[in-house]
Give the backbone structure.
Amino acid sequence: SFCLFSSRSGAKLVAPLGCLVSRQKHTLPDLPYDYGALEPHINAEIMQLHHSKHHAAYVNNLNVVEEKYKEALAKGDVTAQVSLQPALKFNGGGHINHTIFWTNLSPNGGGEPKGELMEAIKRDFGSFANFKEKLTAVSVGVQGSGWGWLGYNKEQGRLQIAACANQDPLQGTTGLIPLLGIDVWEHAYYLQYKNVRPDYLKAIWNVINWENVSSRYASCKK
């Protein structure tokens, strides 16, 4: 992608590196519903803290890290660039993952997907019940903090389930295109479900936004 800069001599295209100079800061996306909209499955207090504190912190830290990275690039300081990469991965992943997560949920969610996505689930997992069981098991089994994902393997043209540790972003670390992410960090459920992660995972299926997951699937197949 190129940035368009205009000057008195007219507009000119500047290569991507030039875009770093005037890059837009990342911002916290608005939720497409109220904090209490997913009750009783995920309560308002969790949603408010999760969005306005946890996700906001990833966004703020990502902006700080990118600023430092920009300086290291300008100086040609490769050592500094390398040392900043874990923070870039963690905060960048946190921002990417949560931005997907909020849209994967809906007060009108639950039930089962329809159409092409449902056909693909049956093809790749045998049945919706099998898929649900498998994604739940992978998410329950994440050690410590992380995510359970339904992703699309573009190379093989099939759906795949994966787990990622911490805030590792699915596509950047596995190559799978993210369709549905389940956050199993304790901050996503502890206030309501204490340490019983399986209860949270049972409840979250009631608010999965299959329309969103389906449109993500349709986009990545193009």
Remarks:
- The chain is about 50% helix and 15% strand.
- The two ends are 20 Å apart (CA to CA).
- The longest strand covers residues 146-153.
